[in-house]
Design brief:
Oligomer: single chain
Radius of gyration: 20 Å
Largest sheet: 5 strands, parallel
Structural class: alpha/beta
Number of helices: 8
Number of strands: 5
Strand content: 5-15%
């Protein structure tokens, strides 16, 4: 391993004295194909990874699997209680279902989503009216099969779920409902 660089799967394999394939199988939790990987070998791989401080590259894993396990929450204003509640609900609920929340403030959500940054997106309630660029991005994401939910009083493009702000008794219930609906959409 080069000084100052992050440890790689190759470094873990060298330290454990095993192949790259073995490290991949052990660290991903997958069975070793037709070859059974012994418990001592698994322990050696885990020990080497821990000793080196190896952290899997989420982007590389996402490319292999065709999904990121990330959900974006696009909000406009952290000072808005509804957007803040949506971000808090997502941060609390999504990890329980295997998704990493990413909170995006402002206009950056479009580029993030179009670059494949997340499997789904929840668009907060501010602004009440979406811009033409927002609608164009939502339509493109529908074409790509990306799960989307918008908190809005207006009707979004076909293929985008909508949750009207007035449908829940409290802002917390609305935020939790938005996260639950997007999770349902992600599951199929």
């Amino acid at each position: 391993m080069r000084h100052g660089s992050k440890p790689t799967i190759r470094d873990v394999a060298e330290a454990a004295g095993v192949s790259l394939t073995t490290v991949s199988y052990v660290l991903s939790g997958r069975p070793g194909g037709n070859t059974r990987i012994s418990r001592p070998t698994q322990d050696r791989v885990h020990a080497a990874a821990h000793e080196l401080g190896y952290v899997p590259n989420r982007a590389a894993r996402g490319m292999r699997r065709g999904r990121t396990d990330v959900v974006a929450v696009a909000i406009t204003d952290l000072d808005d209680s509804g957007d803040r509640g949506l971000a808090a609900a997502a941060a609390r609920i999504l990890p329980l279902h295997g998704y990493q929340p990413v909170i995006l403030v402002g206009e950056s959500w479009r580029q993030f989503m179009l670059s494949g940054g997340a499997d789904g997106v929840i668009l907060g309630s501010v602004p009440a009216e979406r811009t033409a660029a927002d609608v164009e991005t939502m339509t493109e994401l529908v074409d790509r099969g990306v799960a989307q939910l918008v908190v809005s009083e207006t009707v979004p493009p076909d293929g985008v779920d909508v949750l009207a702000p007035g449908t829940s008794a409290t802002p917390d219930a609305l935020a939790e409902g938005a996260v639950a609906r997007l999770l349902s959409r992600l599951r199929g």
